[in-house]
Amino acid sequence: MDLDFVYVKFARVWIPDSVDVWKSAELLKDYKPGDTVLHLKSEDDQETQYRIDPKTQELPPLRNPDILVGENDLTALSYLHEPAVLHNLKVRFMDSKLIYTYCGIVLVAINPYEQLPIYGEDIINAYSGQNMGDMDPHIFAVAEEAYKQMARDERNQSIIVSGESGAGKTVSAKYAMRYFATVSGSASEANVEEKVLASNPIMESIGNAKTTRNDNSSRFGKYIEIGFDKKYRITGANMRTYLLEKSRVVFQAEDERNYHILYQLCASKHLPEFKELRLSHAQNFNYTNLGGSPVIEGIDDAKEMMNTRQACTLLGINESYQMGIFHILAAILHLGNVTIKANDRDAENCFIPPNMEHLIIFCDLLGVDYEQMAHWLCHRKIITGSETYIKPMPKFQALNARDALAKHIYASLFNWIVHHVNRALRASVKQHSFIGVLDIYGFETFEINSFEQFCINYANEKLQQQFNMHVFKLEQEEYMKEQIPWTLIDFYDNQPCINLIEAKLGILDLLDEECKMPKGSDDTWAQKLYNTHLNKSALFHKPRMSNRAFIIQHFADQVEYQCEGFLEKNKDTVYEEQITVLKASKLSLLAELFQEEKQVSSPTEGRPPVARATVKSAKPRALQPSKEHKKSVGHQFRNSLHLLMETLNATTPHYVRCIKPNDDKFAFTFDPKRAVQQLRACGVLETIRISAAGFPSRWTYQEFFNRYRVLMKQKDVLSDKKLTCKNVLEKLIKDQDKYQFGKTKIFFRAGQVAYLEKLRADKLRVACIRIQKTIRSWLQRKKYLRMRSAAITIQRYVRGYQARCYAQFLRRTRAAVLIQKYQRMYAARQKFLRIRSATIVIQSFVRGFRGRQQYKAILREQKAIILQKHLRGWIARRKYSRTHHAIVYLQCCYRRMMAKRELKKLKIEARSVEHYKTLNIGMENKIVQLQCKVNDQTKEMKSLLEKLVSLETTYTNETEKLRAEVDRLRINEGSIKLSSNKITCLMEEIAILRKELEETQAQKKRLEESADKYKEETDLVVFQLKEQNALLKNEKEDLNRRIQEQAKEITESMERKNEEETKQLQIDLNDERSRYQSLLNEFCRLEERYDNLKEEMSLVSITKPGHRRTDSTHSSNESEYTYNSLLSSEPGESEDVTRRTEEFPEQKGALDMSLFLKLQKRVTELEQEKQALQEELDGKEEQALRSKKEAEEQQLKARGAELEYESLKRQELESENKKLKNELNELHRALTDKGTPQATAPGSPAYKVLLDHLNAATEELEVRKEEVLILRSQLVSQKEAMACKETMTEPMVLLEDVRKMKDQGEITQAFLGLKETNRPSQDCQLLNEDGELWMAYEGLKEANRLLESQLQGQKKVYENELEILRGEVQNLKEEINRQQQLLAQNLQLPPEARIEASLQHEITRLTNENLYYEELYADDPMKYQFYRISLYKRIIDLMEQLEKQDKTVRKLKKQLKVFAKKIGELEVGQTENVSPAQLTDEPIRPVNIPRKEKDFQGMLEYKKDDELKLIKNLILELKPRGVAVNLIPGLPAYILFMCVRHADYINDDQRVRSLLTSTINGIKKILKKRSDDFEIVSFWLSNTCRFLHCLKQYSGEEAFMKHNTPRQNDHCLRNFDLAEYRQVISDLAIQIYQQLTKVMENVLQPMIVSGMLEHETIQGVSGLKPTGLRKRTSSVADEGTYTLDSIVRQLNNFHSTMCQHGMDPELIKQIVKQMFYIIGSVTLNNLLLRKDMCSWSKGMQIRYNVSQLEEWLRDKNLQTSGAKETLEPLIQAAQLLQVKKKTDEDAEAICSMCSALTTAQIVKVLNLYTPVNEFEERVTASFIRTIQVRLQNRKDSPQLLMDAKHIFPVTFPFNPSSLALESIQIPSSMNLGFLLRV
Question: Which DSSP letter does residue 619 get?
């Protein structure tokens, strides 16, 4: 591969950058040898020039193809260099949110500064048992590899976790230990794994602190050895610590904190037990406030203190020791506040002020003398040869001595705690192997580096050397294994740097030598360093501007160390006088810290010697000095480091390098500069360099063939893949040094894979161009033909259109000439007529104008006068109008105010629908009333008119009379004149009459006017009322329509709600069934565990003959299951409820207590839930009544009496409300406490509702009580089994005694007595050495104590209820006596009169009883209501008993008929065969009597002694394959049931119980013996279900007899009800189903990932990418490669086996659904944890595989099994891999499509999506954020993985058999000849 071929135009390279370290650029033109400048264009389109060094001719590193970016393993990159590593880590961290990446054998972990859901137990289970390269990089993968290699290679392992502060070392180590604790478990019951994890909070509190880089930085190194036994279970642990940062106790930099425990102590100062410590806030202590940051955001120190104390308790540090620790820590805080003042006269002296409060507290807490401590804090003792001097110290020296004492006390306490933690974690059994987890500081360099950084970097030099050697060794082993030639790889050897530090006359030697000098100082030591190493060692330098510093060139970087403080920190001096004062302490813990014996300082005990301080004395003692005191800190650290390296070299190391992405602790923020510094420091780049020096890229021959087959021609493809690959590579890569052929792999040098990828991409691009060319040509040809055909068609239509247009033009031209002729003539005539008309009009207007002018002049004069008159009148009226308008306005305002008030009242009333109805009724009434009023007024008007007519008539008559009189008077004029006076009077009378006439006429006129006016008003009112009525009718119709709509909506909503509730109830039912089955599974597991323990104990007893078992451990031959009945009396019930118990011959109380507590908790929760629902219902009813009352009060307040229709409306509303209220109260009384006997009578709706609720609650309560009683009876039976070994009949005697007990109190006393009699002696502890039996017995005692407490708690309640029950018993006795008397009287009556008399007596009794209880509960209606409910319940129970008795009578009658028929047949046979002559004394000669064909009844008879033989031949030794192939399905079940039928027929309950129990135990035994045999488990699941169906079908219950033939009905059981055994067999079937599921899972598990994901079902669709070093030979190789066909074949095998065994079709569907769920969940979980599987082509493979599974379902006719739905998450994940992922529309489509996936799963798939080819594109981070925003409101589980262990609840639908029992033949091959057909 030539450079001019690689560095061509558009090639991408990396160039250095000051900000991003490396920056990507693109070549603008080809590179030619000899060019000095490369023309580049950066990603921001800026053109730059890169100058090539003329000496080295080094070109910029090439960038990898995009498809190689984001790889799991950095060694899989083609170009291995620093920018490629940095870019790959950045892409994975920023874009894919992946924090783990492999780099060869190193796991690189980047701290995300965010909690990620990738450490749950489901993730642990997913990584457990997997090879390292099979899953995405993870700390769990490294832990699994270490655990697997420990088990496989029998070699100890080490996990080395390193990195700088804040990189996440502690968290990574913690997760590794959690993985071991979860996967391996504990070898004993002491929960060692919990103690190992509990050590973390303690060590973090005393050894971690907040720094500027990390809130929880470990300020010490630790190596934890987790021990395992031979079964690789955790047995214990041991911890070694290194270099605690003691200086932090007395000094913290800005924004840093002291150790967490001190702040936790201050935060807990309010606790009562901490009052004596006299603490305050952390800001008030110097040692905790130096950094100025005493609080960490988001951390509660008080809560952390609780966790620390709990961990201490768990690890055996009791309360007294804990308080001693807190005393010492509080004393250190108070010591820091002790003030030391300088003497004003003498600066060399200092003193402590008298009565120093903090010193007094310090002395009180530690129990030391105040005067002594105050004296020796300011003085020191100097001993010369003959004299002793006490010299005062200056202030600065005294302060240093005080701080040194504080550091020494804290370090001693730290070592003591580590020692006790190790003692708590010490293994109780022998350790076989261990895995060590090293959590140690990484390479550090700061602005000021001191002794601590020197030791840390020294340790990292040693670790880096070990790492380099291990990497080189692995590379060498790989090359040798593949048998390829290899040359020595040059790698950085840091041995010179190590020699500079630790060799003779090295830096540490010179430092120790200077510490021994009397006047040694940092300056003299620095001069010795310069003289010894400067210009002699290439790694040692001197700074230019300093004489008190030196520079060391480390493997990662060069570091400048300041010499100041080196000697003091190396000596770690503490004055002996102060230690002497502390040794005299009254605090036992403090005295223990400073004992002369240094047991805790031994490295084997886990305490590092590096933390010990040198106690400085003024004069050497005469005795031999302690060597421990002579060792400096550097010397101790070097020794412990050598010990650590020896341990690591003796183990197989695994490396985890933690990287800190930024210094600001921002989540998922990547700083390239900081990352590169750490990558260089932690050795990752060195690993890359070593890999790049050899052959970093490795492919298997098959992988290479699959990936680069496109580069081969057809003739190059041979049958031998290895030879094919060799031939192709020789053609593609000419330089044979660029690759090597191994035994199983092809090795490539760096860059060769990228070159091959380029060739592959070019080949694919050329193929794509050729395909595009052909397709585009075909498309253009089709387009041209379509255009040509369209053009011809258009031309034809256009030409026809043009011809038609021309013909139309000619016709229009001819028509236009005619139109013009007539139009011109018409226009000329119209013009003439217009002129003539206009002339006449003008003349008329002129003449009219003149006349009008004259008329207007006359009119103006007249109008002027009128205007003056009207104007004056207008002014006067205007004044009046204004005044009137103001008055009217005021009236309107007032009326409007009143109307608003009235309107507000009306609106309040008009809010309900009833208002409109009532308003309608009121309006109609008002109209009727007004109509009546109008009619009345009309009648009145008619009467007035009649009066008026009569008056006119009278007046007319009178007038005529007067006229006649006048005529007469005229005639008699003479007489009139004579009678002038008389005439005058008459005239006056006439005048009066005229006047009256006028008045009458006027009155008549007024009446007519008033009548007309009233009529008009009445018509107007009627019209308005009609309009209002019409409006009201419209409103009524509108309201009716709304009511109908609302009713319809309510109905629909109720239907929807009912459907939802039904679905929810179905879900709850499935959940409850699943919980029950899981509890059953747990019980089965505990039972198996018990059996295993029993077997182990039996083995122990055999191997140790000196120990004899007691009778409690003796295995009985009787059944484990004996189902009897216990009588329990419930308050308010007259019947004894039969409870089913399960008796176990061994002690299982301790094992079943978890089940018992779960059920008890569940019962309590159900009762609380029921009580809460009842309270809520009562609250709702009270709220409804309260709201109604408030509404009525508001209506009453709003009512007025102003209008008549308002009163009518009120009356209607009141009547309606009263009616509704009465109905509501009646219904309420009927349902609660004020019902009448008719309302709650049987059959009424109220009674049904109440009875339904009562029955539901009673059934639920009965079920819960039954479960609790079952568990209690189990505990009792276990205690009985421990005491004695008896037969089955003996527990029956005990149960009979239990039945005879009257109440629960007697049962409790009996149980306590039994417990006391069965209490074993203390000799039980000697049964075995391990103490397992003793621990089981202790667990049983705990269970008994718990049961005793519960029984004693219920005893008081039962005693109170007992008195009530006794009273009721007395009443019942009296009633029985009366009934007996009545019965005696009735027996004396004739049969016809007995019924009438008994009815009469019953009526009388019920009447008396009702009267009695009515009087008794007259004051308490609730009790009376409850009495009536109980009465109805008793009636129902009596009716049910009557029905049962009727059934029994019918059965007995049938049996009687059968017996009578048989007796008759026998009698007839005897009379026919015996003649009267043969009855004489003649000799009888033998006669051959032929036997008739016997009519079988479908029963099998066997002897009692043959029962074991039956179980052995039919269950234990039966071979399913022969039965399934040759005989009818379910034959064993039919045989067993026929045996049960015979036992029922002869009424032998012992035989029925014994046979059923033996059958159950036999099935369990064979399933336990062959638990992994699918054929056996399937066979007995099928037979168990068939046996269960037979018990139901022939039980005699009507529900199960619907499909029976008359003959089958005759075969029903007669004497025994086996309903309880049906439940037991159903539980057994559930256990077998769960076992079958586990067997299928174990068989399918190895096939799923290989067949569904890894195998290419569609050849050539996907191409594999480089896998790197992680698929190395150290991992366990797969036993075989499975394909999809393997899975389908296995499914066929399962299905055919189940069908041969005659399994129910519905059960087969459930099993298939479970199988498909396992396939889907395991496949999806692996997809979510494997980045290499998330690609477009893999999505196509998965969809094809799923389609094949769906095809299998269709072939087997299992579409309705629900199996396809279980694959929906996998289908959607595959679709997600294939859909477009760019725009917002794509995001919306993804959100709607992926309904079965959770948000976490969708985001995970998008993050893991990896292009396999260059034509694919990655998913952008913005698109993923868009998906997250759209799905943020979706409520789903945050769990990432599916629960692959989930088992759907199984049901066994009733499936009756049509097979006749009498037709079943038993083959001789089954060896059941002892069975006789009956």
Answer: S
